[in-house]
Amino acid sequence: MVPAGTDANAARPRVEGDREQEILAATLEVLGDVGYDRLTMDAVATRARASKATLYRRWTNKARLVVDALHATKTPTEVPDTGSLRGDLEQLFCGASPGDGLMDPAQVALLGSVVTAIARDADFATAWREQVVTAKRAVSRQVWERARERGEVADDVDLDLLETALPGIVLHRVFVLGDEPTPELVARVIDQIVLPAATRGR
């Protein structure tokens, strides 16, 4: 029984640590199976072998739950430092080992499963941009600013525009044209589009 004067929600045990990671992993599994639109808190609770009340102690709705799960998946925490813009971009988007970054089919599939949600669910879109996109762009921006300090990027280049060119082109070719996300594709975009644009007028 909750003592008088104590907030009932505050008295409940928090969902954290390994249990939180298990629920987030179950969320990604359900998201991969059915997509965002058909994902429900009930389905995640069943997959995680938890009660729906347990989920609601930590997440107010499925948008917040899915965003937390996506945020926990391979968000880069260290900025690549290969000594060149080309090397840093390759490592950022291809990963330090095979199967990382855009080369990870599971990551690409998860992104595809939330594309429609970004357009339809304003709460999800806002949370996704704040928690997932912001973290990834912070790492990307450090790569670009460091390249500019090394003299690899012309002073008049718009970094806000150019830093989105590589993921934008690659994901367009993957989702719209049906291409495979390969290191070769990333390298072609870097060499033929990104680097020439970065050094224009230098």
Automatic annotation (TrEMBL):
Gene3D superfamilies, A to Z: Homeodomain-like, Tetracycline Repressor, domain 2
Every HTH tetR-type domain range: 17-77
UniProt keyword annotations, A-Z: DNA-binding, Transcription, Transcription regulation
PROSITE patterns: HTH_TETR_1, HTH_TETR_2
Stated name of the protein: TetR/AcrR family transcriptional regulator
UniProt DNA-binding region: 40-59
InterPro entries in UniProt: DNA-bd_HTH_TetR-type_CS, Homeodomain-like_sf, HTH-type_TetR-like_transc_reg, HTH_TetR, Tet_transcr_reg_TetR-rel_C_sf, TetR_C
